[in-house]
What we know:
4 copies of one chain form a homotetramer.
Chain A: H1 13-36, H2 43-50, H3 54-60, H4 64-87, H5 93-111, E1 126-128, H6 133-151, H7 160-180, H8 186-202
Chain A binds a DNA duplex through residues 12-14, 17-18, 21, 42-44, 52-56, 58-59, 62-64.
Amino acid sequence: MASAEIAYLPVGKREQTKVQNRLAILDAAREVFGELGYEQATVRDIIRRTGLAAGTFYNYYRSKEEVFAALADDGARRFAPILKALRGKGIGFDGFVREAIVAYFEFMADEHNTWAARRPEGEPQVHIQGETPEMAAVFAEVKDAIEDAIAEGRGPAADTEYMAAACIAIAREVCDRMLARRPIDTATAAEFAVQMILNGIKGLPRTTI
Amino acid sequence: MASAEIAYLPVGKREQTKVQNRLAILDAAREVFGELGYEQATVRDIIRRTGLAAGTFYNYYRSKEEVFAALADDGARRFAPILKALRGKGIGFDGFVREAIVAYFEFMADEHNTWAARRPEGEPQVHIQGETPEMAAVFAEVKDAIEDAIAEGRGPAADTEYMAAACIAIAREVCDRMLARRPIDTATAAEFAVQMILNGIKGLPRTTI
Amino acid sequence: MASAEIAYLPVGKREQTKVQNRLAILDAAREVFGELGYEQATVRDIIRRTGLAAGTFYNYYRSKEEVFAALADDGARRFAPILKALRGKGIGFDGFVREAIVAYFEFMADEHNTWAARRPEGEPQVHIQGETPEMAAVFAEVKDAIEDAIAEGRGPAADTEYMAAACIAIAREVCDRMLARRPIDTATAAEFAVQMILNGIKGLPRTTI
Amino acid sequence: MASAEIAYLPVGKREQTKVQNRLAILDAAREVFGELGYEQATVRDIIRRTGLAAGTFYNYYRSKEEVFAALADDGARRFAPILKALRGKGIGFDGFVREAIVAYFEFMADEHNTWAARRPEGEPQVHIQGETPEMAAVFAEVKDAIEDAIAEGRGPAADTEYMAAACIAIAREVCDRMLARRPIDTATAAEFAVQMILNGIKGLPRTTI
DNA sequence: CATGAATGAGAATTCATTCAT
DNA sequence: GATGAATGAATTCTCATTCAT
């Protein structure tokens, strides 16, 4: 009976396949980008891996760029809430940074393939510029946390944009290296990043922004 | 024979055009990469801009990748001496970092004007890390220098790969933000990056890699 | 049953939507053909404009050609009575030609406003003769009428196919030019066409086809 | 010896193949348009018929529209000089019209396939709108001839644009019908068109343009 | 060495149409 | 009868590269 289907999530075969297809495309794209690198990858490759018809791809995304952005967005979308939750926990700034970094590193170790695209040869790396809404959200979340810390006197009143940028940069870059090593040791890498960030921030000269 | 030609300025016509063509290709490539981005750029685009015949391109470079590398070489060639001089100056690690960062930021601010990348305001944008071959080359040089400094004991013996990665990440990211602001203030941005890096590194726990 | 429904205005919901959909499709097609031209127009375009589901289109028409024909039918349906009335009026061949031409020119001037074809200023343009399905239909109607008139002896017995073709050609071409001028002066243009046709026909040598 | 090749026309194998290819494409296009009709025809079809590589087509024309225009242009280009020559002959206006029509009809009977595209079913006919330079030239030539005739008092001072349009329309349309008949009788058809035009023009009312 | 047209594989994309819901 | 996603053949077009001149 239909009444039993009190709609938790996409019910109906139609909605179901739609979700499945979208996921199939994202998964295929993840793999293809990982194996071929962003530049080498073609929409064709993604479609092939997908098993779907060529036209179907275009019902979901309009270009390679769009899937790529969706992939990045997807990661950010799932990470932002984690960050938000952390801030509510009443741990200090140091605690926030530590837990955020750990969460991020573990999250990434989990995702792995999504981001650690094995770039063939020395091809120039590629990253998102237009910063999707969700990536901007992560950045904003970090910046807010830093500003809060400053407001509460637990951090130096330096340029918060630079600070947030530097923190995210450290985390991302160290994380990348970590993912390239075997075995993947999140604890050590996270500790490194945390120290680098906290010490780095502490010695900052006051500035007017 | 060749020695005789050193005096005369119009060297053998053959050699002259060869140099001219090579330069024409590099210049065209610079422009094209700047305007279209590495991924979008095609050999065709470069050839078109060059004014030369299609076949001529292949007498000098065998692919887009090769021109890109040549361009990077060029950038490295110009920045490497600066760095090398720095290393010879007998300034400590701190001094080295400071001067390297300042040099890098100024170099980038300079390049930035040269490469007025007019990207079309398209949908989700994607771009090359380091933006241009020259920038990528500079990036690599800085990384090498830092690793050398650490290897020579002029820096703390933490995980050098992570360290280099983190330093570079900070420099690059802060530099990017700096370039996006008006006016471009290299002094303040450089000072921020230097502090962040030096303080960050200082508190690092020693590790053996 | 059906007779009972004549009184009520909201006829059976089914029939109502059916009529509405059919009209929606015809309207959309009219617009699309007007804007894109017959060749460029696709079923997709029509469907999009319609707001209906893709499948629904196929419940009414089986192809672009079929909608086009339906549209032409529509035009013919509106113009045919005018022509028929003319034939019944007992005016001579001259009168018939004059009134037909005037009616045609006025009809076209009217349609012209309706179909504000905003063609993109592309490269070498190509367009449908008669511009729109309705116009094509009118054209065909006029041709038939002239041939009938000749067949009934109300016109000179020259080569009727050539005659009809020539008359139509004059009417169409002069009409086209008229529509391109500002202000649109149907009276003068019609008079020109009428004179050209009648005088032209008068001097024709009799032929047997 | 190269000296023997005092360059009358494209010498050199390169130029030769270029001309050959361009002609091959035009010929293929002529056939394809003739067999399939303009709308049904695809660039692919033309390429196939051509035997050339796909890319080669695009070295010559950028689209179906462009080849079509080139085809029309080609016809006009070859016909315009004939018209010009006629005007220099000092025959009267009537003579000019007669000879022009005859020349045109014979020219077309010769070309035949170029213009008499067998339209499949009742598909709407198609003709050039952007009027290529050469088609405009033919029109202008006719209009000039008419204006000359008027200036010399050998024709009524009516609207010359309408007159030229009407004359060309008659010629084209009658010619089309002629080409559809078997046997093709240019003499009779030409005579019909000439009478229609000359008589038609004679009775025209004076107008201020 | 320069030239530049030819090549043809293959990428991106569209479209008419079907059919399960 | 409406819906709209899936299909996949077909089309347009580009591109790197070659090679005769």
